[in-house]
Each structure stands twice: as C-alpha cells, then as structure tokens.
Design brief:
It is built from one helix and eleven strands; from the N terminus they run αβββββββββββ. The chain is mainly beta. Strands 4, 5, 6, 8 and 9 form a five-stranded antiparallel sheet that branches. It has a four-stranded antiparallel sheet with strand order 1-2-3-7, with no helix packed on it. The longest helix is centred in the N-terminal third of the chain and has 11 residues, at about 15-25. The termini are far apart.
C-alpha cells in the first residue's frame, strides 16, 4: 500500500507579545479609548468549543512611601466551554495617567496554573504600582484546552489566548478617562523587564533585576 506522508507539525503556539500586537491592532474600539471606563471589566473569549469569561476589578490601596500609587486587583475566570482548560501564562499592560506603559509577563498567576473543568471558576488577587494617581490596565492569559484542538485561533495545538478588557485604575472607584497606548508606542526599541515563552508545555519566564 502507498505510504502516507507524515502529519504536518502543529503551528507554533501564540506567544504573549504576538497575542498583544494582534489583539490591539484588531480591537482598538474594544479598548474603549477616548471614553470614561469603570474600574472593572468583564469579557468572554469564544474560540470554537472553548469559552472563558474573565472578570477583573481594581481597587485603590493608597500612596506608597516611595511616592507611587498602589492598587490591588482581583481576577475571576469562568470556564464556559465544553472541555477542561488550564491557565499557563499572563501578560498585563499597565498605563499611567501620563501615558507611560509597563508590561508584566510570567508563568501562571500568583504562582499557580489552575485547571478549570467546564462550569468551574477560579480567582486570584494581586497588585501593581504606578507613578500617577490614576491609570488603566488590560491584558491576556494563555490557556490550554486539555482535550486539544477545537478552537479557531490556530496554532499551538490546544493553546488559545483569553483577553482581559481594559479597566480604570481610579482612586475613588468611579469611572475615569485614562489614556490608551497605541500598539506601536509600547516598548518600541526597548526590552521589557519581564518575559515569558511557552512551547510544548514547557514555560520559561524571566525577570530582569536592577543592579
């Protein structure tokens, strides 16, 4: 019998920087630039049989001894899809009132890589600090469909990005008009202080430390 050709390799997994670039270029309207936004967001990412809702809310914690402003934030994930999914990486873009952006990337969230069964929820709390008393944040998480495939995003087998809608960092908890950063203005000509890359269930994260 004729020999069948070997199966084609899976396209490479979408990496956080590529996900951010594609999402921001395609979704500037969804970023709600030029309008007042609340300190919370809720957004559902649908990708074939996969569906994950992310609810995020930020709360002001006050000024720091270093002259910065501190916020906490809570993020809740709900798996609305048909199969189990696992959170693998995170990627945040945090923008202050002067338009200065900081990117934070890493494996998992709060030291965990939880698996969510259909209908299951998981949440975590973390924090950030910026130089001004208001700002905004948005981001993405890389998830893996543990049943493999079944999505429309393409690449990386069962890997797919889940988006966090832009929310305000507002000291009084009200809506705020805070600047957006055009995709080409973020980290142009610079290396970010954090990095993460995933391939074949191997995830590498790195953080640069000031001397």
């Amino acid at each position: 019998p004729p020999r069948l050709p070997p199966p084609l390799p899976s396209p490479p997994a979408p990496q956080p920087d590529e996900v951010r670039r594609r999402s921001e270029e395609a979704g500037l309207t969804a970023m709600r630039c030029g309008e007042r936004i609340p300190p919370e967001s809720i957004l559902t990412t649908n990708d074939g049989a996969r569906s994950v809702t992310v609810f995020a809310r930020a709360f002001y914690k006050g000024p720091t001894d270093e002259g910065l402003h501190a916020w906490g934030y809570r993020v809740e994930f709900t798996n609305r899809g048909e199969g189990s999914v696992q959170l693998l990486t995170r990627h945040w873009v945090i923008v202050d009132a002067d338009g200065k952006a900081e990117e934070v990337k890493g494996p998992g969230a709060k030291g965990q890589m939880p698996t969510l069964q259909p209908g299951e929820k998981w949440e975590y709390e973390s924090g950030t600090r910026i130089a001004t008393d208001r700002g905004s944040m948005h981001g993405w998480f890389t998830m893996e469909d543990l049943h493999g495939g079944g999505g429309d995003s393409g690449g990386g087998g069962g890997l797919f990005p889940v988006r966090v809608g832009r929310l305000a960092l507002s000291p009084d908890g009200n809506t705020a008009d805070v600047p957006c950063i055009p995709p080409t203005d973020v980290s142009v000509g610079k290396l970010p202080a954090t990095s993460v890359h995933s391939t074949e269930r191997v995830i590498v994260g790195a953080v640069s430390l000031a001397a």
